[in-house]
Design brief:
The chain has 788 residues and is mostly beta strands. The protein has 2 domains: 471 residues, Methylamine Dehydrogenase, Chain H, CATH 2.130.10.10; 294 residues, Neuraminidase, CATH 2.120.10. The longest helix is centred in the N-terminal third of the chain and has 22 residues. The two termini are 43 Å apart. It holds the Pfam family Phytase-like. It comes from Agromyces aurantiacus.
């Protein structure tokens, strides 16, 4: 194990160095060191994965009997038993704590929950959890929205039978909890959270708002938890106020402790997020021994405008870090995740020297650049806090210290090697489910658990616990990543279409749909693993960037591209041709008698064949049937579940149509549709047929083929019963490949192509992170000769 880890460490450093050479270093930051992190995997060598994903457990599967599984339920913060086999998570939405069996980390098993209503009041919410021996320590917010009268308690449950054996009043509203290295003390951040709607000195949600927060300390030396007592560490005493004021923290009269972490010698570090500071506490004497401001950042290379354009040309100027999670790197350094809250958030993380409070390293723009490179940058948050790094943990695996930093808005956890505490080295990016916050290393079992706080049952994307293991496994590794140009990653999302280069087997093309404002065709280098996005071509109309919903793409041997553009209504669907520079040179509307019956599910793919005479024939796929009433999607004209494939003769401008029968699932509200069309040869078409389900509910993600040889299509709608419904054959069941990532099974299998050497590729559309986890899965399905 140790030898393998050392080998991976050496390779990771080499890969990081190669990537850094291509990317360049981050810009110098005001008052900080130059950030050495790189934003993409090496273009010259495949990334070395220290962690692979073993399982994704949706916590709605663990709700009590009688609770609707569609009700909101989350896994925010987690803890693990000393044997590393029982995980406990907080579910603030469900007002309960949950238990998972990790005996087999590849197959977590729900062990049920404890409702807080059984312990106190129905409005009680758990905020954090720890485990000491056979006791689960749950901190509970009893405030119920009363900001001026915050309340909370610490409940102690036996892990073995979940019976409460102690309940301790905390005298305020708690946030996080931490256990000292010697297991003799527990520290709890009492935040006494501000009212974000209250205006203070002209600032909504401003400070100060009494009462201020503090820290509670519980000594665990007594044999019985029933004799444990909470003893406060005052942040409002004259001595504490002098310390906070001298440190330059914001609004020192209203400290709001957010996160607590013990150092190797038992010193407690406390983030004061809204105050933009860190406090140091001696829990044995219950005194505030020091504090420092976490300062501000001025740097370039960020996307700061919410405009559906990923453009990292913006800057941060004197922005407070406002740290959330904190962890000790070693006895002299702490690391903070700089999420921001009141007035800041620097979109990265930092390392500080606790002896003087000075930042010795800062991620600069590189954390955000990683989100962009992996296609998970959330443009909806561009004008606010970008990827919002919130959770952070540090642990040693196989002799190597690692930092794990979670992006709340980009749904990733970034792993760094901390062998050099002041020079973190980027190792890899892990995909998680939405809103990863609880970062739980389990070194004794070579595991990492990540719990997520965002649950969207309406979209079928559910809060989960992700489990990762140390090793060389492929599962969960990024399968497609963007290169950087002049130090900035190529921005991409929502790859809804693929097309092969007509000649170069190592190159294919992808296109973004309406998730991005500027319609873009991406060049993808498939000879490397992961596949690399190496260039981006913006589609233009009359010299300006076009804004199209590109759902199909075909690279023409004659030069340029055919685009299948889906409209919000039937009339908006069109076949568009560009030149090699991306300029639109032709737009072909579908026949009116067709578009009059197309609802919001229109064109979803385009392909073409060129005959020996040079005649070009283009094929398109409609996602769903033609309807008598397209607005209501009722009355399928061609029969239940029959959609259409269109054939366009470029020379004559004639359209003919063929039928394709879609299958169905037994899930209420679900439907199947076509998502892509590819010419295998002059007579054979391959298509993607999929349902709209994701996660454990996903049922149909497949590639089928149809034969056109000798079949005569119809023009227009055709007479009743005249439309020929093509016989289809199953070619590839893609669902097993999607599930093999051990992550959230993606809904939108949308791109398919056959490269010049016959290799078959497919890709999922991450929907721009809307109603999705954001992970893009790029698949290598095999040889066309074998599949078709």
């Amino acid at each position: 194990m140790q030898r393998a880890l050392l080998a991976r460490r050496a390779a990771a450093v080499a890969a990081s160095a190669l990537a850094l050479g291509a990317l360049g270093t981050a810009p110098a930051l005001a008052g900080t060191a130059v950030a050495p992190a790189s934003a993409t995997e090496s273009a010259s060598a495949a990334p070395v994965a220290a962690f692979s994903r073993l399982a994704t457990y949706p916590v709605f599967q663990n709700v009590p009997a009688g609770v609707d599984p569609a009700d909101e339920t989350v896994a925010e913060i987690s803890a693990v038993s000393e044997d590393g086999r029982t995980l406990v998570y907080t579910d603030a939405a469900g007002k309960r704590i949950g238990f998972l069996d990790l005996s087999d980390p590849s197959h977590p098993v729900g062990l049920g929950t404890v409702d807080l209503a059984e312990l106190g009041h129905a409005d009680d919410q758990p905020t954090s959890v720890s485990i000491v021996g056979d006791h689960v320590l749950v901190v509970i917010d009893e405030t119920g929205g009363a900001f001026t009268a915050p309340k909370g308690r610490l409940d102690v449950l036996r892990l073995s039978d979940r019976e409460r054996v102690a309940s301790i009043d905390l005298g305020g509203q708690p946030d996080s909890i931490a256990v000292s290295p010697d297991r003799k003390y527990v520290a709890i951040a009492i935040e006494n959270q501000r009212d974000e709607e209250l205006e203070v000195d002209g600032v909504e949600g401003g400070l100060p708002q009494a009462p201020g927060g503090f820290v509670q300390v519980v000594k665990l030396t007594a044999a019985k938890p029933s004799s444990w007592k909470a003893q406060p560490v005052s942040f409002s005493s004259a001595a504490a106020q002098r310390t906070l004021t001298a440190a330059g923290v914001f609004a020192p009269t209203d400290p709001e402790p957010e996160y607590v972490a013990f150092g190797p010698d038992g010193t407690l570090a406390v983030t004061l997020q809204e105050n933009n500071g860190v406090a140091l506490v001696d829990v044995r004497t219950r005194t505030l021994t020091g504090a420092f401001s976490t300062g501000t950042v001025t740097a370039a290379g960020f996307d700061t405008v919410k405009d559906k354009v990923i453009d990292a040309s913006g800057s941060l100027t004197s922005v407070p870090r406002e740290p959330d999670a904190i962890a000790w790197v070693d006895a002299h350094h702490v690391a903070t995740a700089n999420e921001g809250d009141l007035a800041g958030g620097t979109r990265g993380w930092s390392v500080f020297d606790v002896t003087n409070g000075e930042p010795v390293w800062d991620a600069g723009n590189t954390f955000e650049q990683l989100a962009i490179a992996h296609g998970v940058y959330n443009d909806d948050r561009a004008a606010k806090k970008g990827p919002e790094p919130e959770g952070l943990a540090i642990a040693e695996f196989g002799g190597t210290p690692y930092a794990f930093v979670a992006s709340e808005r980009s749904n990733i956890v970034v792993v760094y090697d901390l062998s050099e505490p002041t020079e973190p080295a980027y190792v890899q990016t892990l995909f998680a489910t939405n809103g990863p916050e609880g970062i739980l290393p389990i070194p004794g079992r070579d595991l990492l658990a990540v719990s997520s706080e965002v649950d969207d049952a309406s979209a079928g994307v559910r809060a989960s616990v992700n489990v990762y293991g140390v090793g060389d496994g492929e599962a969960g590794r990024p399968s497609i990543v963007a290169d950087s140009v002049d130090g900035r990653a190529i921005g991409w999302q929502a790859l809804g279409a693929l097309s092969a280069d007509p000649v170069d087997a190592s190159t294919i093309y992808a296109a973004s749909d309406s998730a991005l404002k500027r319609s873009t065709v991406y060049t993808v280098h498939v000879a490397s693993t992961p596949a690399r996005i190496t260039d981006a071509l913006v589609v233009t109309k009359a010299g300006s960037p076009a804004s199209l919903d590109i759902e199909g793409l075909f690279a023409r041997p004659q030069g340029g591209y055919w685009l299948a553009v889906e409209g919000s209504t039937g009339a908006g669907n069109a076949l568009v041709r560009t030149d090699a520079a991306g300029a639109i040179v032709q737009s072909v509307s579908l026949p009116f008698e067709i578009t009059a019956h197309v609802g919001k599910w229109g064109l979803e793919g385009v392909t073409a064949v060129t005959g020996e005479s040079g005649a070009e024939i283009v094929y398109v796929a409609l996602q769903r049937p033609l309807w008598t009433d397209p607005a209501a999607a009722t009355g399928p004209i061609d029969g239940e579940g029959v959609t259409r494939i269109g054939r366009y003769d470029v020379a004559t401008g004639a359209w003919t149509w063929f039928g394709y029968r879609l299958e169905s699932t037994d899930v209420a509200g679900d439907w199947l549709g076509l998502s892509e069309i590819v010419a295998v040869d002059a007579d054979t078409l391959a298509l993607i047929e999929r349902d709209k389900l994701n996660g454990p509910a996903a049922a149909v993600k497949r590639v089928t083929t149809v034969e056109l040889g000798g079949v005569e299509g119809v023009t227009g709608l055709g007479a009743l019963g005249q439309l020929p419904v093509l016989e289809k054959a199953d070619a590839v069941d893609v669902l097993p490949a999607l599930r093999a990532t051990n992550g959230w099974t993606q809904e939108k299998l949308e791109g398919l192509t056959i490269a010049a050497d016959g290799a078959v590729y497919a890709v999922t559309d991450n929907d721009g992170l809307k109603d999705a986890t954001g992970e893009t899965v790029f698949l290598r399905l095999g040889s066309a000769a074998d599949l078709f």
